[in-house]
Amino acid sequence: MKLNSLGKLGNKLLNSIFISALLIIVIVITFTIFIRVSLDVNIKGQRSLDDLEVLTNQLYQALIDQETGQRGYSLTKDESFLEPYYIGGQQFHESSDELIQLSTHFPTLHKQAKLLVAEGQDWHNLYGDPFVALAEKGELPNLLVSVEAKHLIDEFRVTYKEFTVMIDAERTIVRNTMKTRINSTLFGLVFFIIFIILINLLVNFRILKSVIKPIIKLSNNVKSYTEHDFTKVVPTYNKQDELYDLIQNVDIMRTELSSSIQTLEEKVNFDGLTGLYNRRYFNETMLKEWAIAKEKHFPISIILFDIDFYKNFNDTYGHLAGDECLKTIATCLKNFNDEPVRFVARFGGEEFVVFLQGQDEHQAMQLAEEIRKAVENLKIPHSKSEVHDYVTISMGVATVIPTDYIKSTKIFNMADQAMYESKNNGRNRVTKYEKVVSYQ
């Protein structure tokens, strides 16, 4: 579809919608990227804390291995205890360097990590190596020094436990930071989308407001013109767009119709192809008879029907044959005219309508079935019909007693619904309104 086919008014509305949609897409993409970044930061932080926890456990285990090896060697002089002591010392040194370096990314943990490493190094320097050296000489450390060593190991354990708790707390901080960022991002996204939509609505409202009032007035005028009241002038509209052209064209139409309607009224009561009354005559007569029936409280019935698969008939046999089909059926229908009690009119295309004055639903149903059989008995060949070898019709019947609370159009809607019920139930049948009862 070309944009210029929408006209000036259409392009204004389309541009407003397009700009709003583009802004929403850009905002959604931007905020999505921000959410992705927040998730990546959280994942990276959690992984770093996992690594930090692993290093802490390795550091702790290394010092415990050293302390166990030192005590075992001091008590037994068994040199096999020295192996875990020296391996633990090497592991402690490597883990401490990595722990200090990795903890720099978390300021709240860095100080505690340095304290943990310092306590471990103090034990190693003040008690670990000196105790091993004494054991090599066959000597034991005095009781006071041993108590001090044990006290330092206990402090190391306490610091280790506090550090692991702090790591868990840092995990919560990282996770909550991510949640806060994502929630803020989503709130901002919703806010901006709502803001853009409101702006778009405001712009479109202003555009529509400038055209709705003249359109409503023009619509009321056109309705008056359809009732042959040409005294109302078209609304004033000064903007040079499609609505201006429409109003001017309607004014031209009003002038032309006003000058020729009298002549047309004398020629349009009958359908040119079938010779039946046409829809205009039917509608005018219906309004008159409706008023009379409402005053005298007698019923009005409508039979609405059309030819089954008429398009297929035209496509198969051609439009000239289709016209002949309509003429043949119309000739048959004229036999059912009994004015003013009833008459048949061509309602449009392959659709016909029968008006019945003062006849109830039972009489209308009986007449409709007679018409259906009469059309079927014409035996007009229809090879593309899905229900019969000959042309058939689907009919809807409606009956009302007019009142002040029922409009004349109501009965047409009722009959139309009944007719489509006939179509839905297999066609070539009669259906009365509000009752799923068909006659075939």
Automatic annotation (TrEMBL):
Localization (cell): Cell membrane
Transmembrane stretches, start-end: 17-39, 185-203
A GO molecular function held by the record: diguanylate cyclase activity
Domain HAMP, chain residue ranges per copy: 209-262
Gene Ontology cellular-component annotations: plasma membrane
Primary location group: membrane
SMART domains attached to this UniProt entry: GGDEF, HAMP
Domain GGDEF: 298-435
Swiss-Prot/TrEMBL keywords: Cell membrane, Membrane, Transmembrane, Transmembrane helix
Pfam family, one: HAMP
GO process terms (BP): cell adhesion involved in single-species biofilm formation; negative regulation of bacterial-type flagellum-dependent cell motility; signal transduction
UniProt xrefs under InterPro entries: CHASE3, Diguanylate_Cyclase, GGDEF_dom, HAMP_dom, Nucleotide_cyclase, Rev_trsase/Diguanyl_cyclase
Protein name per UniProt: Diguanylate cyclase
Organism: Lysinibacillus antri
